[in-house]
């Protein structure tokens, strides 16, 4: 049932229930998308973070030489690195 059909309905309780249900579905979808963004961002920052990334540049890649010991070392992610996750007030990064 579309919103236009619901507005023509004389039952405001049914209209409210439908809108609340729709809002809940949208909130769930937003939460799932934000989790995906957070996970992909984490993966990107961990995989390439030691040698540079699109956010801070690739100077680390050029200066790394043949030293691969830094490549396997996990890097602690800084909150300011999460420019995509932090762009939403309901993000899991907050």
UniProtKB/TrEMBL annotation:
Instruction: Report keywords, A-Z.
Output: Chromatin regulator, Coiled coil, Nucleus, Transcription, Transcription regulation
Q: Which residues form a coiled coil?
A: 16-43
Return one Gene Ontology term, BP aspect: chromatin organization
Q: Where found?
A: Nucleus
Q: Which InterPro entries match?
A: Eaf6 (IPR015418)
Q: Name one GO cellular component term.
A: nucleus
Which Pfam families does this entry report, sorted A to Z?
NuA4
Give the residue range of the signal peptide.
none
Tell me the protein family, please. Belongs to the EAF6 family.
Q: What is this protein called?
A: Chromatin modification-related protein MEAF6
Organism per entry: Citrus clementina
Q: Lineage from the top down?
A: Eukaryota, Viridiplantae, Streptophyta, Embryophyta, Tracheophyta
